[in-house]
Amino acid sequence: MAAIRHQGMLLACAILAWPTAAPAQFDLSSFDPAAMSVLAEDVVLRAPDADMDRVFKAVHAASQRDDDARALCALFEPDADRSINGLQRAANGLGDDSRQRFADALAMVAVSGFQSPRQPYDAAAAQQVVKSAGATAMFLNDGFTAGLAATGTDAASRDARCRSFRWLVDALDGFEPSDRAAATRYLLLEGLTLQRNML
Which positions make up the signal peptide (predicted)? Predict the structure, then answer.
């Protein structure tokens, strides 16, 4: 565990230095993948709500742009890699402004996650927030449920899931910050397993 924490402190420094040191790419390839997998979950569970909500706001802003939304949707696919390396790939798929915002949010989560105890987190309650946002999105958007039901790996299915994801994020934007933070933790830990989570 000490080795993982050491990797974590190096990670936080790398993320903080990244925006000015290498604006075109976000490279975490030098970090141990196994340690980073454990670390990612630990940090997500320790970061305060305000910092998790900052991640949500970065995701919401990026989801308004078609190209950026595709990169984020890939991150929240049910079988996606949401390790540190997965976050790196998502960040590198974003446009400059969205990438900067996303990296800034991740940096705050990384730093605060090492300085904070585990936050109160109820996975069932967080899932209920996601379901409530899904109900709102379904009421406001024709085709939302069809997007949830798309299970294929073809482009059409991925596009349908992505469209529903964007509508879901729009709906979550109207929730309280603490609820958005809980939903963000849940989605980062579980992914957008839509059929199981919301239907």
Answer: 1-24
Q: Hunting for tokens 């990169």 — which residue is that?
A: 71
In whole angstroms, give the CA distance from residue 11 to residue 36. 9
Task: Say yes or no to pLDDT of 19 above 90.
Answer: no
User: In the chain, what are the domain boundaries?
Assistant: 2-115, 123-198
Instruction: Look up residue 168 and give its two tokens.
Output: 């879901």
At 133, which amino acid appears? A
The model's pLDDT over 90-112, given as tens digits with 9 standing for 90+, comes to: 888 889 899 889 888 888 888 88
124-132 LR contacts (CB < 8 Å, sep 24+): 125/182, 126/182, 126/183, 126/185, 126/186, 127/186, 127/190, 127/197, 129/172, 129/175, 129/179, 129/182, 129/183, 129/186, 130/168, 130/172, 130/183, 130/186, 130/187, 130/197, 130/198, 131/197, 131/198, 132/175
Whether the pTM exceeds 0.90: the reply is no
Alpha-carbon distance of 120 to 35, in angstroms, equals 23
